[in-house]
Amino acid sequence: MSDYLAQVIQDKTIILPYCHAAAEWFAAERARLTALGRMPSYPDGQIAAIAKVNNLILVTRNISDYADFDGLTIENWFV
User: Distance between CA atoms of 15 and 79, rounded to whole angstroms?
Assistant: First the structure.
C-alpha cells in the first residue's frame, strides 16, 4: 500500500504549502477572533488560511469550525 500511495496518489495530488502569506493571514484572523472571544483552533486556522490565500473554496461538513473567519468562502457538499 505504501508504494501505491507514493507512486500513484502522491504524484497526482497537489499539496499546497502553509506559506508566509497564509501564516500572516491566520495570525491576523486569530488575533481578531481572539479579541472577540472566539479563538479558532490552530489546525482549522491553517486550513482556512491555505484556502484563503489561494483563492479556494473550502469544502467541509464542519461549517461552524470555519464560519468566523473573515472573507473565507465555505461550502458543504454533504447537505
Answer: 26
* pLDDT tens, position by position, 4-34: 777 777 778 888 999 999 999 999 999 999 9
Q: Cα 22 to chain center, whole Å?
A: 9
The amino acid that residue 51 corresponds to is A
- Under a CB-based contact definition with an 8 Å cutoff, are residues 49 and 26 in contact? yes
Using CA atoms, how far apart are residues 77 and 61, in angstroms rounded to an integer? 7
Task: Choose among 14, 26, 74: nearest CA to 53.
Answer: 26
pTM for the structure as a whole: 0.84
What does the pLDDT read at residue 1?
A: 57
Q: How many CB atoms lie within 10 A of CB 58?
A: 20
